[in-house]
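Bench notes, afternoon.
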Amino acid sequence: MSIAVITGTSSGIGLASAITLARAGHTVFAGMRNLDKSAELREVAGKENLPITVVKLDVDSDQSVKDAFARIMSESGHIDVLVNNAGIGGRGYIEDAPIALFRQVMETNLYGGIRCIQAVVPSMRERRSGCIINITSVAGQFGMPPQGPYAASKWAFEGLSECLAQELSPFNVRVAIVEPGVIATPMTTTPRPAPPPSPYAMHGRRIAAYFMASLSKPTSPFAVADAIKDIVDGKSTKLRNPAGADGAALINWRKSKTDEEWVALGAATDDEWIADAKKHFGMDIKF
């Protein structure tokens, strides 16, 4: 059994992954920025006597990452698995999204992952053993407004992951990418304030309608946790691993079109967009 560090475990995919790996016998260090949000994970771990240790870990902070991994290494001696799950959403149209929003999303979704990777790679490389799993999104494979800030961070993390996989291949350290679709987590189910009027409003209306249709039959974050467990257990050796009920379908929707056809879909009428989406997903999407 392995020693695994998972970031962003206070809710959603991170929480589900900590529980799933611990139930499978792996020793889990569950990192989270705010320990006040650890009650649910601690309760499950206590009731089931799971090998989970909650660790304060803010991936946005150099010092927090340094301190957390130093503590983990001192307690465990080594780390076999890193699951870079901590992430935030970020919607906005490119014309008017504040630069501060782009910086904030990149700080957590890209640089946060890099900080954790740099903390574990030296020992994994020296031991010639280890696994790094980076949680991106289907948005790491295609862009759809108004997800410009979020997609930019996930595309960047996917590109970095592919480089990292090649770098570490000679040292027997695996890198895998997990690409969830629409998953029922606080990131997707928390009500959002109505967006201000915008000339791009049709794009926001469409993606909101898709999310609503997908969440009408919600996919549990434990489905993504199962995909992560398969990688840890060696059942999947692929670099990219779509996850969730619609992960692969969303990526295949993009792959079914040329770049020019995908761009043209942005100018389609609502009826044309709905018809195209329904052809690929069979969902009853309504505005």
